[in-house]
Design a protein that fits this description.
Layout lengths: L2 E5 L7 E2 L15 E7 L2 E7 H13 L1 E4 L5 H4 L11 E4 L4 E4 L2 E2 L1 H14 L3 H11 L5 E7 L3 E6 L6 H12 L3 E6 L2 E6 L4 H12 L3 E5 L6 H6 L2 E4 L4 H4 L7 E3 L5 H15 L1
Parallel strand pairs: 1-5, 1-13, 13-14, 14-15
Antiparallel strand pairs: 2-4, 3-4, 6-7, 7-8, 9-10, 10-12, 11-12
Helix pairs in contact: 1-9
InterPro entries: HAD-like_sf, HAD_sf, TPP-like
Keywords: Hydrolase
Protein name: HAD family hydrolase
């Protein structure tokens, strides 16, 4: 049986220093492996044990990193194990095949967004006009597909996020708050659509998935079995689904547990 494993990366399999949640005594903390360097600085980690599990998973299944990151941001990551044949970037906007974006898939995505959603410029301009420089640090557009803000989370007004979500909903967009980033993403731009396409190409008979944010909900619902960690938007909102297991682990320990569950299901 061909098993496809589609997993979110940030705060699911890999973790920034701020997201590690090393709550145990220092002497009992796990050994960490750096899997991403940016501007000559270490940025993302997994445990050494998780590194070995991911290597085993790459031999047991079709492992597909599935991320909201842009292609450039994804390519900074150096995951252990066999190089994945497929990867999903920009929340499903790009399917990479051996590291190269598939132009046919991307064209299909663009056509659907043009038909079903308000233009990116309208959304970007609204976010810029209604946000406050006192708590916004950066305005960004990713792959000409979606927009996000980098904010000071402790200063961010909760009401503003709710109002943006209502405004976006009426225009075919969705809003997700992840750490210090607020994403506005077109509703048809989904990880699940890209995963279904890769499952078709590989002939996968079983699909497993994991993720921590609202942008991962469609991915988890589309899989035969899914897992979410004890942190993140899904955990904070109590999100649940029949085929999705809510794990108690938080931080980098959750990444290790998710890989164990993937391997157990593959075997």
């Amino acid at each position: 049986m061909t098993v496809l494993v589609a997993s979110d990366l940030d705060r699911t399999l890999i973790y920034s220093a701020a997201a590690l949640a090393l709550t145990m005594p220092d002497a009992r903390a796990p050994r960490l492996l750096c899997v991403e360097v940016h501007e000559s600085r270490p940025l993302s980690y997994m445990t050494e044990t998780a590194s070995g599990l991911l290597t085993d998973l790459g031999d047991a299944a079709v492992f597909v990193p599935t991320t909201t990151r842009t292609r450039k941001q994804y390519q900074r990551i150096n995951l252990p194990g066999p190089a994945p044949e497929y990867a999903i970037c920009a929340n499903g906007g790009h399917i990479l095949v051996d590291g190269v974006a598939d132009p046919v898939w991307h064209a299909r995505v663009l056509a659907r967004l043009a038909d079903e959603c308000a233009p990116l410029d309208e959304v970007r301009q609204h976010m810029a006009a209604t946000s406050d420089p006192s708590w916004v640090r950066k305005h960004r557009v990713a792959e000409d597909l979606f927009a996000y803000l980098v904010v000071e989370r402790e200063l961010l007004p909760e009401e503003w996020v709710k109002e943006l979500a209502v405004w976006a909903e009426n225009r075919g967009w969705t809003v997700s708050l992840q750490g210090r980033k607020i994403y506005a993403v077109p509703k048809p731009l989904t990880k699940s659509a890209a995963v279904r396409e890769i499952a078709r190409r590989t002939g996968a008979e079983l699909t497993l998935a994991a993720g921590d944010s609202l942008l991962d909900a469609d991915l988890l619902l589309a899989a035969d079995r899914g897992w979410r960690p004890g942190h993140g938007e899904l955990a904070d909102t109590g999100w649940a689904a029949p085929a999705v297991t809510a794990l108690p682990e938080r931080g980098v320990a959750a990444g290790e547990r998710i890989l164990r569950e993937f391997l157990k299901e593959c075997r």
